[in-house]
Every structure is written in C-alpha cells, then in structure tokens.
Amino acid sequence: MGHGYSFKCPNCKSKINLHEGVGILYHYTFERLFFGEKPELKEEVPKEIWEACISLMENGWKPKDYEYQICFCPKCKTLEQYTSFTLEKDGETYTPKFICKSCGTELQKCNPLEMDIPFSITCAECNTTFTARPNPCVVKWD
Ligand SMILES: [Zn+2]
Ligand SMILES: [Zn+2]
Description:
The chain has one domain (2-139). Helix content is 21%, strand content 37%. The protein is built from four helices and nine strands. Strands 5-4-3-6 form a four-stranded antiparallel sheet, covered by helices on one side. A three-stranded antiparallel sheet has the order 2-1-9, with no helix packed on it. The chain has a two-stranded antiparallel ribbon with strand order 7-8.
C-alpha cells in the first residue's frame, strides 16, 4: 500500500490513479524492473531512457534505487507518474530526466496537494485530456 492521487475521467468515468513511493516487495520488484527477459522498466520509461540505462549497465553501472514519483510539467501542467531510478558506478550516480510528452519541457517532482492547482490529465482508457484537482487516495500495489 502506498499513497497517491485519484482522478475520474469526465468522458468514460474510469478512474486514474497516480501513486508514489516504493512497493512492499521492494527487492523482488527491483530484480523485475531491471533484469530478466522482460524488464518492467522497459515498459515504464521512454525508449531513450531505457536504452541509456542498458548501455550504462553494460559498462558496469549497477541499479541502486527506484521510486514511483509524481511529477508535473511547469509549462502545460500535465501531471504524470513515472518510475525514477538511480544507477551507480564508482561512487557516481546517474538519474534520468523525464520530459513532458505533450510539450517537451523537463518534468519536476511535485506534491500535487500542496500546489492545489488544476492539473492536466490524460485518460489511458479513452485518451481524453481534462483538467482536475487531485484527490488523495490510498493505492494498493504489489
Ligand atoms: Zn476516459
Ligand atoms: Zn508539458
């Protein structure tokens, strides 16, 4: 269980949940994200970020940490959940930057409730984009 924010699509009424933090099965998830035949990170982050991650790991970088984060675009106010991660080698760390799919601006980690502005959300079911304020919710995952 973690916490997150829920929205309801005004068009198809489906629920959109964004969550943050890490899951309970942390170590299991860790393996599943980076390794195996179908690493989950590959599905969750943009292609270029996954490719950068793979080439670093081939050069001896090791996954150190990951976290689901809520971030927003300072320009178009799109709110998204992304999987942030850190790789490490010889005391140096690498954390990718995520870019807004709508306008190309660098996303920033945020606390949507503190900001209290209408965010722009895209429904994964029907692809409708709408603006709404977030409601806090408890999210079950793992
Ligand atoms: Zn919808
Ligand atoms: Zn944007």
